[in-house]
Amino acid sequence: MMMITSSIVLLVAFGLVGGGNYFYNVAINRSHETPELHGGGESAQAASMQSEEEQQAKLAEILKWTEQQHFEKVAIQSHDGLKLSARFLKNENSNGNAVILAHGYKGNNEQMPGITKFYYDQGFDVLKPDARGHGESEGDYIGYGWHDRKDYVQWVQFLIDEQKDENIILHGFSMGAATVLMASGEQLPPEVKGVIADSGYTSVQDELSHQLKYLYRLPAFPIMQVTSVITDIRAGYTFGEASALESVKKNNLPLFIIHGDIDELVPTEMAHRLHDAANGDKKLWIVPGAGHIEAYTVAEAEYQERLKAFWENTIN
Predict the structure, then answer these.
(1) Would the pLDDT of 68 be above 60?
(2) What is the total count of domains within the chain?
(3) Spatial contact of 188 and 251, defined as CB atoms under 8 Å apart
(4) What number of H helices and E strands is found in the chain?
(5) Which one of 33, 51, 261, 263 counts the least CB within 10 Å of its CB?
(6) Are the beta carbons of 290 and 45 closer than 8 angstroms?
(7) Which stretches does DSSP call E strand in the chain?
């Protein structure tokens, strides 16, 4: 009986380790393949905003503008020795303001062309880093914003030292939103005036548990705990410590949280929890009819006006 029990325990242990390594390779390990995430599709509201012809014409205009700009490739070395890459657009009519735009999971610095153009049109310099483990930045794992938070402190210093920018806004989407929220809990220079987080999650533990439930119909325990241990061994962080929720408790900057009310990829309730936990001046905008990172599509004019109001209150 003892041998049978021991065999079962070993089989369960091997199964959990095997499952943990599988989920590490799917979710954490750097890969050029993008997994199908639950809730990543376009909502009916976003799809109905414009006709296909209007959408194509608007996109073509933005892409044409993008191609006409001179994006400089810049790089820094992270605190742990990685070469991190970014695209920087110096504004010809610079007003001393700059924004750092943070992309989402498995994204890169060539994304977010619409919001890039909008910031540029308002006189901002624009810096668009590749997160570690993404694009042209080094790194063999994805940190979901946790180790990236320290990288953003360095990117801020780059703008201050190399570009002489006086007022800096951090603006992230999805994983990028979690990144800037996590960075808000660090010691940032006074040149950083505010943080904007669009569709950010509370913690890596919460978000991956949510995905595990909907993609695989599995409970978080114990596979998340096992995968977290494997991540700590292979990537140097645990899911529990990688918490935007805990970081915003230490934040002392103006904070603007944006979230769609039908976001299934990052549940909308996470935005409320982040707002409730955050320290300092904070605003929450739940956008009706918007799915994941769709607020700018669904309510572009209002989004822009709210950004302008936020800048005026934080920068001025």
Answers:
(1) yes
(2) 2
(3) no
(4) 12, 8
(5) 33
(6) yes
(7) 72-77, 83-89, 97-102, 125-129, 167-173, 192-198, 255-260, 282-287
Q: What is the pLDDT of residues 145-168, one digit of tens each?
A: 999 999 999 999 999 999 999 999
> Is there a single domain that holds both residue 149 and residue 224?
no
Is there a domain that residue 44 lies in? no
Q: Are 175 and 139 in contact, with CB atoms under 8 Å apart?
A: no
Which of 219, 216, 272 minimizes the C-alpha distance to 248? 272
pLDDT of residue 97: 97
User: At residue 80, does pLDDT exceed 60?
Assistant: yes
Residue 160 has phi, psi (to 5 degrees) of -70, -50
CA–CA distance, 165 with 169 (Å, rounded to integer): 11
Length of the chain: 316
Shared domain for 130 and 275, answered yes or no, is yes
Same domain, 297 and 179: yes
Backbone angles phi, psi at 208, to 5 degrees: -70, -30
For the whole model, what pTM was predicted? 0.92
Distances (CA, A) of 29 to 75, 181, 204, 205: 23, 23, 14, 16
Distance CA 265, CA 201 (A): 9
Domain residues for the domain of 132 are 62-203+242-315
Cα–Cα distance measured from residue 274 to residue 301, given in angstroms and rounded to the nearest whole number: 25
What pLDDT, on a 0 to 100 scale, did the predictor assign at position 6?
43
